[in-house]
Specification:
The protein has 280 residues and is an alpha/beta fold. It has a domain of 76 residues. It is 41% helix and 21% strand. It has a 6-stranded mixed beta sheet, with helices on both faces. A 4-stranded antiparallel beta sheet has the order 2-1-4-5, covered by helices on one side.
């Protein structure tokens, strides 16, 4: 065996040892009524990777997230999470899968009538048969992870915006998920609090070996935490690459997004005249 054959053999062996992607999306399409909003999306997210999904308003990133976490069913295509095809899974299979997935929603989505600790224990009540004392210990442990030790007895209304976000993360990681989704984690936060939340996301990936998907419009945050970035525009994936590759992209729309330049609206002259004439 010569050196070239040996190198090919080693590469093949490394590839065979690589874990399968945590997320595989193929040909994903989505409609709201008659309007198509996602167009043939293909994306793979590797195990242990932080993938950031970015795009302007109306790009489809929130709709994409809702499909990834199973809140919406696609019109066509498949989504595989941790090896499971969610587009053809039964409710019981989805319930089992959700034990291995965490979601931190944009506004925190904590129940206002429950204490912070009781909010964190909700996934444990839903997905485990742990006794109350064990759940109390786990809730305190997760609060420690997000630097909210001692705040478990407070109500959500007593927390600041940044603390609400971290409490939501504590609930999202209550069952030690392998896959974690964030929806606009930095929205509404001041720069210092936003940076601390970015640091938390990086720690979670490194300490808990999680695969993390973050939907955000915060450019600085995206480039700080991402291994790779997916750019969406009008329901289509424009580009997927490392932060360096995205910064160096020659795509005009990507550069407009990164430099916060507004795009000139595209006007169809014929459609414009029809609207003026009241014909649609």
């Amino acid at each position: 065996m010569d050196a070239a054959d040996l190198q090919r053999t080693l590469k093949a062996r490394q590839h065979s040892l690589r874990p399968p992607p945590a997320i595989e999306v193929r040909g994903l399409e989505a409609h709201y009524g008659e309007t198509q909003v996602l167009f043939g999306l293909d994306l793979s997210v590797e195990s242990g990777e932080i993938m950031v999904i970015m795009g302007g308003s109306g790009s489809g990133k929130s709709t994409f997230l809702r499909h990834l976490i199973g809140l919406e069913r696609p019109s066509a295509g498949t989504i595989r999470l941790l090896g499971r095809d969610t587009t053809h899974s039964s409710p019981l299979e989805m319930l089992e899968l959700r034990r291995r997935i965490g979601v931190a929603f944009q506004g925190g989505a904590l129940f206002s009538s429950l204490s912070v600790a009781e909010n964190i224990k909700l996934p444990l009540r839903e997905h485990t048969r742990l006794d109350e004392k064990t759940m109390d210990i786990i809730a305190r442990m997760k609060l420690e992870v997000v630097n909210l030790s001692g705040f478990g007895d407070l109500m959500p209304s007593e927390l600041s915006g940044g603390m609400l976000k971290r409490a939501a993360v504590a609930r999202a990681i209550a069952t030690d998920p392998k896959l974690l989704f964030f929806d606009e984690p930095s929205a509404g936060l001041d720069p210092a609090v936003s940076s601390a939340l970015d640091d938390l996301i990086l720690r979670l990936r490194d300490a808990m070996a999680m695969t993390i998907v973050v939907v955000t419009h915060e450019i600085e945050s995206a480039f700080k935490i991402a291994d790779r970035i997916t750019i969406l525009d009008h329901g289509r994936i424009v580009e997927v690459g490392t932060p360096h590759q995205i910064r160096q992209s020659g795509n005009e729309r990507i550069q407009n997004l990164l430099n916060r330049r507004a795009e000139e609206p595209r006007i169809d002259p014929a459609a414009y005249l029809r609207r003026l004439a009241g014909e649609g």
